[in-house]
Amino acid sequence: MDLTVLWFCIVGFLFVGYFVLDGFDFGVGMSLPFLGRDDTDRRVLINTIGPVWDLNETWVIVAGASLFAAFPEWYATLFSGFYLPLLLILLALILRGVSFEYRHQRPEKAWKKRFDRMIVIGSAVPAFLWGVAFANIVAGVPLDANHDYIGTFFGLLNPYALLGGATTLLLFFTHGVVFVSLKTDGDIRSRARRLATRSGALTIVVAAAFLAWTSVAYGTLASVLLSLVAAVVLIASFVANLRGREGLAFGLMAATIGVAVLSLFFALFPDVMPASNDAANSLTIENASSSQYTLTIMSWVALIFLPLILGYQAWTYWIFRKRITRAAIPAEGAH
Length: 335
Description:
The chain is built from 12 helices and 2 strands; from the N terminus they run αααααααααααββα. It has one domain. The longest helix is centred in the middle third of the chain and has 32 residues. The chain is globular and about 60 Å long. By secondary structure, the protein is mostly helical. The termini are far apart.
């Protein structure tokens, strides 16, 4: 396999991992107003992702670093043209991380309420803007001959991109609520299952509309087939949740997000940043990539470290696999 194609696949894999793993983190954060009836409930919700949220978030750092090293032209165009939305994502992630760490530092209800609100905002903003960003990448944006973005911020907020943002927002929300039902017990578990049913039905409608639009306007045969697979798996996850099969529902939701992201990368290939104004200005895997020597060195590094990262991630989830209950939350000092 050509190294440029290999690294396009690796970058796609890293973003799949990020959206699957940090996706349910976003969903749990957004679920606080819906499932957190009191402070103990909210602490249960936060504790479901407490041991893993920061590890999940490192996937975007690795994905960004790989993008920078393997496709520097793509990185430069993306991060300069999409500067404001990516900055908003970064600020939201910082806001969320700070809130997780500082929420429990003082006992006042007003203090915790402010940080709970920031967790919701810090989860919803990236969940929405990642969909907006990737929809624009697939659809193409205006680029000049130097591959610089020549559009505006509001040009990124077109109907297709907004639908993409709504799709990722709902997918991640439902993914997170299903994760809550898998990781908790008692009343909060039952309420999470009911909420996943309601949000899942809306997610199916919105995601189907976005995948259909993508397939008709920008799809290839491979991306269309993957979109159909994602739709079927999403419906299967909804049915599994209805039947109380939380583990299966969560696994199928993860598969839905993974296959949907893959369908976007297949719709994009061999471009990495299509130019909507002039195809000659488009960035492809060939004119955006690093040298063969750089890609060779990176391939050896990935061969050594990717299995280690995956192994450590699997071990972490195995260690923290038990359900969390209200009774397990101490009266003071927990978060």
